[in-house]
Design a protein that fits this description.
Layout: H1 2-31, E1 57-61, E2 64-70, H2 78-89, E3 93-96, E4 99-103, E5 109-114
Antiparallel strand pairs: 1-2, 2-5, 3-4, 4-5
Length: 116
């Protein structure tokens, strides 16, 4: 049973990576105005939240520098609340457009770090 779960987990990770890659390529085509009619399809609203609308602060932790967003600094921010909801649906961690996002244990703070 453990092997099956591991295989399914790897499959889901691969599918998520493929979807993220396809979205990034589509966004690049839209940005270059190759397919302008698809602009709405790759808008941040597809995910329900826009990370650029969230207030981030620079922070440093055991693994180095990262950006931190808290409910305290984003209490009226719909995008922050949608991001928390999305993280909840993904067990507290997800990657989007080259960024890795994670929810802290208290569930009201989110960290993000650029993927290298």
């Amino acid at each position: 049973m453990e092997e099956v779960l591991e295989i399914l987990s790897e499959l889901l990770n691969g599918l998520e990576y493929a979807v993220q890659n396809a979205r990034a390529q589509l966004a690049a085509l839209v940005k270059e105005n190759v397919i302008p009619e698809a602009e709405k399809a790759v808008d941040k609203r597809v995910w329900g939240w826009n990370p650029d609308a969230v207030k981030w602060a620079e922070a440093t932790g055991p693994s180095g520098e990262y950006q931190l967003a808290t409910l305290e600094n984003n209490h009226d921010n719909r995008d922050f609340r949608e991001m928390l909801r999305d993280l909840e649906e993904h067990d507290g961690r997800l990657s989007r457009e080259g960024w890795f996002y994670w929810r802290f244990q208290q569930k009201t703070s989110v960290g993000r770090k650029k993927r290298t």
